[in-house]
Amino acid sequence: ASGGKGIGGRTRSIRERVPPLLTDLYQFTMAYAYWRAGRHEEHAVFELFFRDNPFGGGFSLFAGVHDCLLFLRNFRFADEDVEFLRSVMPPDTDPAFFQFLRCLDCSGVTLHSVPEGTVVFARVPLMEVAGPLPVVQLLETSLLCLVNYASLVCTNAARFRLAAGPKRKLLEMGLRRAQGPDGGLTASRYTHIGGFDLTSNVQAGFLFGIPVAGTMAHSYVTSFTSLEEVWPQTLSAVNGDHNLVDIISLTKGWLSRVCELLGAEPGKIHEGELAAFLSYAIAYPQNFLPVIDSYSVGCSGLLNFCAVALVLCELGYRPVGVRLDSGDLCKQSLDVRRVFRLCSEHFSIPAFDSLIIVGTNNISEESLAELNSKISVVGVGTHLVTCTKQPSLGCVYKLVEVRGRPRMKVSEDPEKSTVPGRKAVYRLIDAEGHPFLDVVCLAVESPPEAGLPLSCYPLGCNHTALSVTPARVTCLRQEPLCSAAETRAKVQSSLQTLHPRHKRLQKPDSYTVALSQKLHNMVKEIQKGSSNNTNFLLAN
Amino acid sequence: ASGGKGIGGRTRSIRERVPPLLTDLYQFTMAYAYWRAGRHEEHAVFELFFRDNPFGGGFSLFAGVHDCLLFLRNFRFADEDVEFLRSVMPPDTDPAFFQFLRCLDCSGVTLHSVPEGTVVFARVPLMEVAGPLPVVQLLETSLLCLVNYASLVCTNAARFRLAAGPKRKLLEMGLRRAQGPDGGLTASRYTHIGGFDLTSNVQAGFLFGIPVAGTMAHSYVTSFTSLEEVWPQTLSAVNGDHNLVDIISLTKGWLSRVCELLGAEPGKIHEGELAAFLSYAIAYPQNFLPVIDSYSVGCSGLLNFCAVALVLCELGYRPVGVRLDSGDLCKQSLDVRRVFRLCSEHFSIPAFDSLIIVGTNNISEESLAELNSKISVVGVGTHLVTCTKQPSLGCVYKLVEVRGRPRMKVSEDPEKSTVPGRKAVYRLIDAEGHPFLDVVCLAVESPPEAGLPLSCYPLGCNHTALSVTPARVTCLRQEPLCSAAETRAKVQSSLQTLHPRHKRLQKPDSYTVALSQKLHNMVKEIQKGSSNNTNFLLAN
C-alpha cells in the first residue's frame, strides 16, 4: 500500500510527507563510504532509545511506530532525488553509487518495535532496525523525526490527562501554535492517542477520525453591534408547530427578568454581544455554547447568555453551555455555576443545572490540575502542542551489532556509553499487577519466568546485582498492530496498571531498568577488551 | 499556479500541505452563523499582529508571507472536504450552506502584508486580510499557523546569527528534533532566511536550494574495529600519476611520527577509529572532515585525524578539518588548534593552518556567544528548531472593520484591547539611518513627511503625546515579492540598520510603536461610545 489509506484514517501518502531525502546529508556521505569500502551488504543492527523521561516525569509513551512502518515500506529514491544527491555529493563520488541508490529499498530491513502507545522508560531499547549497513544508517534521521515529537506530545497529553482526572473532557486546540501545518496535525493525532477526547483541527478529524469541537471566537461577538443585525428575527419552537416566534422581544423580556433576578445594571450590557448570541442561537438552537468574556462575564456575557438560553428553553431547545477564555477560570466558574443554579430555581428550568462550562485560557499542566470540577471541558493549545516544559525528546539511534558481532560505544562519559548486541526486553509485574522492572536481555536468552528469582543489574548503578521474582512477565515487543482507537484505549489501561509512585507528575520514583546477567557480562567483557588495545602500530 | 513550483524552489503543493480543512472547527460554525444571518457578503477586515517580541528580545522577523499568498490562491473546498464538514456540523445546518462552501474561493479577498523577512515589532499590524466576512474568518487559523512558527524560528535564527557574529558559518541540523517532517522542513527554510548558511536537511536543499552539509556520525566510527576493514587499501596521488600507494603503511608511519611529536601513547589509540577515518578519506580524499570525539579527542581522535590528514597532504589532497561533538568545545578547540600548528611547523605542511573546526554540542544562543574564534563552523539543532526559550509566537488575528465601520474589542484588560480600523504603518528613520519609531496611521491619512514634526501617541502609555521629526519615512507595506535569497540578504541589511540598543539579545531597549493623532482620536471616541451604552432594553 502506498499509504493512501493508512492505519487510523485517510493519511496523506507517507512518500510525500517523508521523502527519502528528508534526512541529514551525513547519512548519504556515510552510506557512500560504506559502499566504497564494499560494506554495503554487511548486516548491521541499530537501536533506538532515549536517556531521560521528558518533563521530569517517571514514564513516557512511545508513538510514531505506524508511520515508521509506512516509511520503511515506501522507502525508494525517485530519479530526481538521485539527481539532486549527485549535485550535492563531492564530484569525485563514484557514479555507480547513484545506481546503487536507485535500486535501494527496505526489503532487507526488519523492524522490531515496542508497540504504538506503550508506556516506556528511559534507556529501554524501543526499536531495533536490522539490515544492510548503509540502508539502516540512511533511515536514522527520518525514524527519529517520526518518533521524537510523536512520543513527546503523546506523553505530554497523557500527563494533562492525569492532571485533569478521568472524567473531564479534554480538547486539543493548538494548531495555530504548532510548527506549521504538519506539526499541528501530528499534535492532534498523538494527543488524541495520549488521552485527549476532542480536537479543534478539522483536518485531523478528516484524516484520523478524531471527534472535532468548537463554537465561536471573540471576533464573532465583536462583529455585531446591534440587535438590528439579527436575522431572521424569528424562531419556531422545537415541538413541531411552525409558528414563528418574535425572538427579539422574547429575548428582551428574559434579559429584563435575568437582570432583575441578579440585580444587574442593564446599562452595562453590550447589545452587540446579545445580538451575536441570538444570531448564533438561531443558527444552532441545539448547539448553543457562546464565549461569554468578550466584554465582561459578570456585567454582560453571562446575562446575555442566560437570556438567550432561557429563550431557547422556552421554545423547547436545550442550550449546551458557555466558554470562558480569560481571567481566573476557577473564580468565574463558581460565579457562573451560582447564576445557573439561581436561574434554574427561580425560573424552574432544570436544564440550567446541566449546562456545561468550557475553560480555555492558556492552560498548562499546573493550571489544569488546579481547576475545579465546575469546568467539565478544558481546551488546551500552546502548552500542549509546543511542550513548553521540554520542547524536544532526545531519542537516539545507536549501532549495536555489525556482522553478528556486538558493537559498543565506550565513552569517557559512562552515561553516553551504549549497550551492545541484539536484545529482548521483558517487563516484570508484581503480585498487585504493577510493572516494577524492565529487564533488557540478549535476544538469544530465554525469557525470565514468573515465580522464579532473577538476578539482574540496574542501569545507573552498574555493579550492584539485584534479585527479583516477578509474579508475571510480559515481552515488550510481542503485540500485533492495532487501530488508533485500540491504541488510545491501551494507553489508558497501561497507565492504569502503572504504580502511582511512577506516574506522579512531580518528582516521581524512578522505575528500574536493568540488564540481565548475560548482557551485563558481555558489557564488562567488551569494556575490558577496549581498554586493552593491542598496539597495531607495532603489528606490521 | 497550484503551488508546484513556488517562490524559493520546488515546494510541495500548498493544497496538500495546508488543505482548507486545516483550521479550527469554530471557523466553520461561525461562517455558518454569518451565512445564516445573511452576512456572507458583508465586507470585513482582520489584522494580524503579536503582542510581545519573542525570547525577551527587542525585535522580530516576520515570515511565512509567501506561503500565505499561495494558500489564498489555492483556497477551495474539494467535494470530500464538504462532505466531511456535513458529517461534523450539527444536523440542523441548512444544506444550502454546503453549496455555498463548494463555490467559495479567495477571489474576493485582498491581503496586505509587511514583506517576508521584515524586521518588525510588537503590536504593529503585520498583515491585513479584507474580504467577505465568513471567508476572511475561515482563513484565521491557517494564516496564523503559517506565520507563527515561520516568524519565530526565523527570529531565533537571526538571534543566533547576532550571537555568532557575521563571519562564522552556521549549520542548521534540527530535523530529528522538530515537530515531525514538515516542522523540520519549515525550520530549515526559515532559519536560512534568518541568517543560517547551511542545513543538514537534504530535502530542504532539494526544495529550497539551501546549501547542504554533513560528513559522518559516531556510528560510522564505531562500525569499524580494525585496519583490515579498510578497503581499498590504496590511493593514488592527486597529481595525475596513477601509481597506487599502500595507504595502510603510509598511515602507520605518519601516526608514529605524530605520536612522537606530541608525546602521545600509541596504546591508547583506537584502531577502529583510524580505520574509519582512513576509509572515509579514501572515499572522499578532498572532503575529509571526521568527527574526532568518539573515544577521546586528545588520546585518539586528534592523533588519528592528523595521521590521515598528513597522508592526504603527502598525496596532494587538502583535508578539510574536524568536528567536535561533546565536552568543552572552547578548551578542545584550543588544543586542536595547537596541535594543527605544531604539525604544520614540524612537518612543514602549511595546509594544517587552514584546517577548520566544526562545533556541534547542544549549542544554545548563550553557548554560541561564548565560543572562541577557533571554531569557524557551528551546527545547531534542538535549541534552534524547537526555540527552547519560547517555543511559540502568539500572533493573533483580530477584526478591525465591518461594512466600512471600525470595530474594536474594548477589553477590561487594556493590553487585550484592539486598535480599530484599516491602517497603514510607517517606519521613521533618524539622521543616522536607524529606524526609531513605527507609527500606525489610518489607511486614509496622508503619510508622515521627512523633516516635518509629527505628533503621535506611543502604545503602552496611551495618554502622552510625543512629537518626533523623521529624517526619512518608509512605508512598511510597499515592497514587491522577492526570492528567498533576496529576502535572506534583506534580513541582514535591515538588521544592520537597526540600532544596537534594539538588537541586544538580553534586555534590549524597547522600540517605540505609536498611533497617529487621528487613530488615537478614533480609539478614544470608540472607547467613550462603548462605555455610554444606550439602553436598548428600554428602546422597544
Automatic annotation (TrEMBL), chains A, B:
| EC number(s) from the headed UniProt entry | 6.3.4.21
Q: Which reaction does it catalyse?
A: 5-phospho-alpha-D-ribose 1-diphosphate + nicotinate + ATP + H2O = nicotinate beta-D-ribonucleotide + ADP + phosphate + diphosphate
Molecular-function annotations in GO: nicotinate phosphoribosyltransferase activity; transferase activity
Q: Which CDD domains match?
A: NAPRTase_A
An example Gene Ontology CC term for this record: cytosol
- Identify the metabolic or biological route this protein is part of: Cofactor biosynthesis; NAD(+) biosynthesis; nicotinate D-ribonucleotide from nicotinate: step 1/1
Modification comment? Transiently phosphorylated on a His residue during the reaction cycle. Phosphorylation strongly increases the affinity for substrates and increases the rate of nicotinate D-ribonucleotide production. Dephosphorylation regenerates the low-affinity form of the enzyme, leading to product release.
Question: Per its UniProt record, what Pfam families does this chain match?
Answer: NAPRTase_C, NAPRTase_N
Query: InterPro entries attached here?
Result: Aldolase_TIM (IPR013785), NAPRTase_C (IPR041619), NAPRTase_N (IPR040727), Nic_PRibTrfase-Fam (IPR007229), Nic_PRibTrfase_pncB (IPR006405), Nicotinate_pribotase-like_C (IPR036068)
Q: Kindly give the Gene3D superfamilies that the UniProt entry links to this protein.
A: Aldolase class I, nicotinate phosphoribosyltransferase
Which GO annotations describe the biological process of this protein?
NAD+ biosynthetic process via the salvage pathway
Transferase as a keyword of this entry, yes or no, is yes
Write down the NCBIfam families for this protein, in alphabetical order: NAPRTase_put (TIGR01513)
Name of this chain's protein: Nicotinate phosphoribosyltransferase
Please give the organism: Oreochromis niloticus (Nile tilapia)
**Gene coding for it:** NAPRT
